[in-house]
Amino acid sequence: MTWKNKMADDHVIKWNKASKGFDSFSRGTELRYGKYKRGLFAKSRGKTLLVAAGTGNDFQFFPPGLEVTAIDFSPKMLEKAAEKTAAYNGAIKLVQADVTNLEFGDKTFDTVVTSCTFCSVPDPVKGLKELNRVLKPDGMLLMFEHVRPTNFILGAMMDILTPIVNKMGPDLNRRTADNIRKAGFTITREFNIYMDMVKLFEAYPAGRSDMLAQK
Amino acid sequence: MERDLTPFLRLLDYMVVAAAAGVTALLTGYLIPSGWPLPAGMLAGMMLGVPVLVAAILGLSWIANAFEIIMPGMPSVMIVGMYGGMAAVNGNSNLSTLLIIGVCVGLSIQAVFHIYDLSLHGEAGPVRNDMEK
């Protein structure tokens, strides 16, 4: 593993602690949203980067035969994820990394996949810009995320809950669509799973004229 | 092929929110004494609902998802807690009545969220560029 000295980072500490009960807490989510993740992840191709691998619960949703690099900044999460790599019918390489400071070269990956990631990244636009950098020009960004609802009352409710919840978990009020665009991506698809709060995004690096021509 | 658990999970959503609201209503009847100032009773009732909801989310995370509980659950327990607190301080804390009202409010609010969810579910196109607003 190649990791710079960021172990004192509060976010790493938080997610190291969360790794203990993560599988149990996530099971309800996987039951409910697994089919949507499977449909999204099925669009992965070639060299694939999975951001925020967590304890590896998402490995099961990838189609077989991919070459997946799965990153997370929590070493405790990756310890648990290592137990699940063998069950995948393909190659999964675990790397301890910070999405806001990736050590991969430009235009490395064909696909980047995120799953409830950018609710937790401290600087989401910086992280998404890094993904834009490591994604090939004809690559795809596939995201399963929860975001701030657009409804005024529900959005305000998430704004109030976020300072409490993010002490032990994610932010609930991220404006992820805006962040994706600020990072230079063009969103080609948004799919609402639960209200407009749990969503799928598909995006390409901005300026892909061939993709626009197909649309 | 994954088995579609959606109908079962939807039913679970209704049951959990109804139960959380019902338990909140019962707690207000048990714990809030009559004679308190009305605002204090309302606030205490609302606050009683929060740990109930948190317990539901944490206890059922192995089968239910947090969002489907917290989104309808929070207004449910707040409204039921507020009503229960008001009733309790006025000496009208019949537990059966409070329980029925709590469950009915929880089911109704979950239904509202269910309908709202159905209205939004699916493709969210055309894709807008919010930066152009």
Low-confidence stretches of chain B: 128-133
Number of continuous helical runs of chain B:
4
Cα-atom radius of gyration of chain A? 16 Å
Mean pLDDT over all positions of chain B = 88
Label the structural class of chain A: alpha/beta
Outline the low-pLDDT stretches of chain A.
none
Percent of residues of chain B in helical segments?
A: over 70%
Task: Tell me what the structure shows.
The complex is a heterodimer of chains A (215) and B (133). By secondary structure, chain A is an alpha/beta fold. Helices cover 35% and strands 25% of the residues of chain A. Chain A contains 7 helices and 7 strands; from the N terminus they run ααββαββαβααββα. In chain A, strands 3-2-1-4-5-7-6 form a 7-stranded mixed sheet, with helices on both faces. Chain A starts with 9 loop residues before the first helix and ends with a helix. With 133 residues, chain B is mainly alpha-helical.
Question: Could you write a compact summary of the structure shown?
Answer:
With 215 residues, chain A is an alpha/beta fold.
